[in-house]
Specification:
Elements (H helix, E strand, L loop, with lengths): L1 H6 L2 H37 L1 H20 L13 E5 L9 E5 L8 H14 L3 H29 L5 H21 L6 H5 L11 H19 L4 E5 L1
Helix pairs in contact: 3-5, 3-8, 4-8, 5-6, 6-8
Length: 230
């Protein structure tokens, strides 16, 4: 045993330790940087089918909301968008939804806002109030569905998408709170002491619909989908 240590090549041993230590230290930042990227990429690749399904659900809910809005404009609704999953995955290729508004045309965003505002202006105050109540319930239902999607399926949505959907939900919730101001004089109205002079929330609901169209365009442009404009 003593002869072994006496004849051992200590210079070569310590040189190997030094070289190995250098490579180990240099590999740490590379591992920290690239391993998570590679892992996420592999997870996304593996979960591609699930990601497409979850985003499809969000797109369908948004399309349904915009398609069944009580407003009408021939110019705004002259083009429709058919949405499909990408043909690169023919095994899971399918129709996602139909949107009555061409959200790829940026001119349509302010048109949505103006259409809603003008629609309310044409109505008597009491009809404005009844319509804004129905719209509040519609947009609240949409918010609850989107929040549930984020809560349950967040692993299958990227951070940017989650952030944008969350911001939209917060804006909807803000509208719901402001809407309550409409009930501030209900007691006086019932007693015949006062009349309703205006309605809170018209501009807010118009902005929400406009923002919804913008977000929908971003979702449709995800690599999992293809579109046809008719």
């Amino acid at each position: 045993m003593i002869d072994f240590f006496n004849n051992f090549d200590w210079n070569g041993f310590w040189l190997n330790v030094l070289v190995s230590s250098i490579f180990f230290i240099l590999s740490i930042p590379l591992a920290i940087k690239f391993i998570p990227i590679y892992t996420i990429r592999q997870l996304n690749k593996k979960n591609k089918k699930f990601i497409a399904r979850k985003i499809s659900y969000v797109i369908q809910e948004m399309c349904e909301y915009l398609n069944y809005s009580p407003y009408s404009d021939k110019e705004l609704y002259k083009e429709k968008i058919s949405i499909f999953t990408t043909k690169k995955d023919l095994k899971n290729y399918r129709f996602v939804g139909l949107l009555k508004i061409n959200v790829f045309n940026k001119v349509n965003y302010p048109k949505i806002f103006l259409m809603i505002v003008e629609h309310f202006k044409k109505l008597p105050i009491n009809e404005q109030f009844e319509l804004i109540k129905k719209e509040k319930e519609r947009v609240k239902e949409l918010r609850e569905k989107l929040e549930k999607t984020i809560e349950i399926h967040s692993l299958h949505l990227n951070e940017k998408m989650i952030s944008e959907i969350s911001d939209l939900c917060l804006d909807i919730r803000s509208f719901e709170i402001k809407f309550k101001a409409n009930f501030g004089i209900d007691d006086l109205i019932e007693k015949g002491i006062a009349e309703r002079k205006g309605v809170f929330g018209i501009l807010e609901i118009a902005k929400l619909n406009e923002r919804l169209a913008v977000l929908l365009k971003e979702l449709i442009q995800e690599k999992y989908f293809e579109t046809e404009i008719e």
